[in-house]
Design goal:
The protein is built from 12 helices and 8 strands. It is an alpha/beta fold and 271 residues long. Bound molecules: 2-phosphoglycolic acid.
Length: 271
């Protein structure tokens, strides 16, 4: 598993410019002493540049991108326009899929464009309804995940990726039923699914890549549920929507991951 956590703030279509600035400065201040957590802000496009100008060291990402390098694509932004401003790009968020009709082929084209531009894609995938995996063995869960919408999205979205490119991905496992609903998946449910995803990825690539690839959980994470995910060593962080809009809540989520990592490091020292 990755030794560092990723705590990603997906603001979606929220914040005014002044709210955005207050949010970034507050979170940076509250989390500056945390070790081994990578905090990345995904503000609305229009705030990326002013945030970057004011907070050079803030890690930024785009919520979406278009895959052509330039041309008649009214309203769209190309990956090369992000260079020097945003390092990360979310591709395949379920709201893009359900509201804007993006399918796996679109997501795949975006993923390739982001990798070609040497930016880091955060590939979001998730199932529509809770998977019935209680009491199943690991092998059965893997089969169940592989044949579900989740497994198909992983497959279709990553078509044509080389092993080297797989090694540059971050995956956000976001059960669609948990996004913005206030009903998060449990830590153990998501850890079971993520372990299955790692086994599926190992078959597509190799064991080292499957072990190292950061896989995050997303869907109604709050400061109260964060520890549940942080305690699962297979979960490398979280993609946070609603709770990323409040300095105290988002910082507490980052803290939960820093604390869990500290506990794990200590345990490794002793054993
Ligand atoms: P949520 O959103 O935390 O508000 O459920 C997560 C996401 O959409 O990435």
């Amino acid at each position: 598993m990755a030794r560092e956590s990723y705590i990603l703030a997906n603001w979606k279509m929220n914040t005014t410019l002044s709210e955005a600035m207050v949010l970034v400065s507050g979170v940076l201040r509250k989390t500056e002493d945390l070790e081994k957590v990578n905090i990345v802000f995904f503000p609305p496009y229009i705030w990326l540049v002013p945030i970057k100008e004011q907070y050079r060291h803030a890690a930024l990402g785009a919520q979406n991108v278009w895959w052509h390098p330039s041309g008649p694509y009214t309203g769209e932004i190309a990956v090369n326009m992000l260079k020097g401003i945003a390092k990360y790009v979310i591709v395949g968020h379920s709201e893009r899929r359900s509201i804007f009709g993006e399918d796996d082929a679109t997501v795949n084209a975006k993923l390739h464009a982001v990798l070609d531009a040497h930016l880091v894609p955060v590939l979001a995938i998730g199932e529509e309804a809770p998977l019935k995996i209680e009491h199943l063995s690991d092998a059965e869960i893997e089969r169940h995940v592989a044949s579900s919408r989740l497994g198909k999205a992983l497959d279709g979205s990553t078509r044509g990726l080389t092993n080297n490119e797989w090694g540059k991905l971050i995956i956000a496992y976001e059960p669609v039923w948990a996004i913005g609903t206030g009903r998060n998946a449990t830590g153990s449910y998501s850890a079971n699914v993520i372990r299955a995803l790692r086994r599926i990825i190992a078959k597509k690539t190799n064991k080292d890549i499957a072990t190292e690839i950061p896989i995050l959980y997303g869907g109604s994470v709050t400061r109260h549920s964060a520890a549940e995910f942080a305690d699962q060593s297979t979960i490398d962080g979280v993609l946070v929507g609603g709770a990323s809009l409040k300095v105290a809540d988002f910082s507490a989520i980052a803290e939960a991951f820093a604390e869990a990592q500290k506990r794990r490091d200590k345990k490794n020292e002793i054993s």
